[in-house]
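@channel anyone free to eyeball this complex?
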Amino acid sequence: MSSLTDPNSLLTPIWLTLKLATCSTVLLLLIGTPAAWWLARSRARWKEAIAAVVALPLVLPPTVLGFYLLIALGPSGPGGWLAGLAGARTLAFSFFGIVIGSVIYSLPFVVQPIRNSFESFGDRPLEVAATLGATPWDAFWSVAVPLARPGFITGAVLGFAHTVGEFGVVLMIGGNIPGETKVLSIAVYELVETLRWTEAHLLAGGMLAFSFAVILSMMVLQKRTGSGGA
Amino acid sequence: MPNQDSIEAAFRGQLGAFRLDVEFAAPLRGITALFGPSGCGKTTILRCLAGLRRVPGRLSVSGQTWQDDASDIFLRPHQRSLGYVFQEPSLFQHLSVRDNLRYGWLRSSRAGAHPVVDFSEVVELMGLASLLDRSPSALSGGERQRVALARALLARPRLLLMDEPLAGLDQVAKEEILPYIETLHEKLAVPVLYVSHDLREVARLADSMIVLSAGRKVCEGSVQEILERLDLDPGDGEFEAGVILEARVSGHDAEFRMTRLDHHGQRIVIPGIDLAVGEYVRLRIRARDVALAVAKPSAISVRNILAGTVLDTAQDPDTAFAEVLVDVGGGKLRARITRDALQDLGLEAGSSVYALIKSISFDRPVIGRVAHDS
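replying in thread with the prediction:
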């Protein structure tokens, strides 16, 4: 499978994109679930301020977000300090850097649907679980997560798809390094810039088909879990 | 030394505009009703007992402290051995009926719970065997509440809390569930605290009751005792005055579909019920269904004529009405008559009277079966 790492192959950016989206989705669920739980359950007055921060990437231009991330990940930011631990100078322009960027950029798409799901069933099922002897941790896994399944499916699919479709942030913090940061959307951009229309068509068409398939399957899944549940 | 066989509770706190200030001790046996009009704090008290809500106070159940703010003890709901049946059935939608039932069952087995409850026995008792593989969404309202009840029982609680479990159901579904609740504490010996604002339900099910109003306790005692008391103002109309009599089935009349009952030697006839001779029933007799006569009437359609003695009378000078408490040789009856009639008959404590009760006033919801252990 040398073609997956061959800088000139069309498969390289596809493989890299899938790898990025998978890593990001796993991290998004790990971070997004407790965040969504807290936002759904907490009675803190400032929780909406946190919710607004999480939602910021929805409105910020990707270049603005990318700019700040570039500073944060660069040699003089916390990212540089982190990179120093691993013997590198910066997290910018690396695969790890664009994973961090993607996670921040896609967070609202994952947190919002999961939070909505957690809020939709209210306190009652958790109270019932408690009176039946379930600890809060037990009740979270045995009741809250299964009841919020539609939200998790939507969140995971949106997070994955949104990462696949990301362009601006990756361009700002990742640049265009084949096999490291040159993801599919950037590859298309570069192909068009260099007038390699045939290959651009191939990648763009594949992207179109993929996006359609994702949205369609999500709608079908949503419908099925929706009618099977409540 | 806290009592081993009772719940001792005291809660005192401000909840928004509402002030809760109650203290009571309820026996840990049979069904105890928390009775009062809507908004009197019944549900809040039940949630405090479960630990779902924290109001300053203390609570001990059979000698075990569940809450004591003086020494900063507060057990979380899952640390308390209790079952809770909510007003709405609240089944887990993502689990089958069987898995709903097993939820508390598994967790209480892990905790090594004390009372022995047999899974299949409860399923049998609650008539759920044919529903086990269904999803909660495929059940009727009554079936769901039965599952919720069984689920709570299967958690092997020391105390079962029920928050108006019949309130959301129609009459048919209520009638379907009531017998299950009636047999439940008799067969499984789980003490129940039952919140209700429906006096008919309380009269039919409960052994003792605590009457609440505006976050305070008005009185507590056995259901019989409390319903006999004249000073309990009917007031808001939700509280329809009446008493409870217990009577033994002494025979059936198949032709006229009547059942004969014996109450300390006096005969009471009611529309036919399906209970064997020798079993005990509990009758709720509303004060307004009782008429009084000083001489024994004859040639009258009223079937029940009970000889008795007036114990007490009370007149309400602002209205046309008076209430009379009559001892009928065992139980007591309350009669609601006009002040005019009271005057006319010259009734006072000690007068001999005949209490007349039409048989048709014993409609189904006011009759309950009783387990008699005496």
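from a first look: Helices of chain B lie at 42-50, 97-110, 119-125, 141-154, 171-188, 199-205, 223-228, 339-345.
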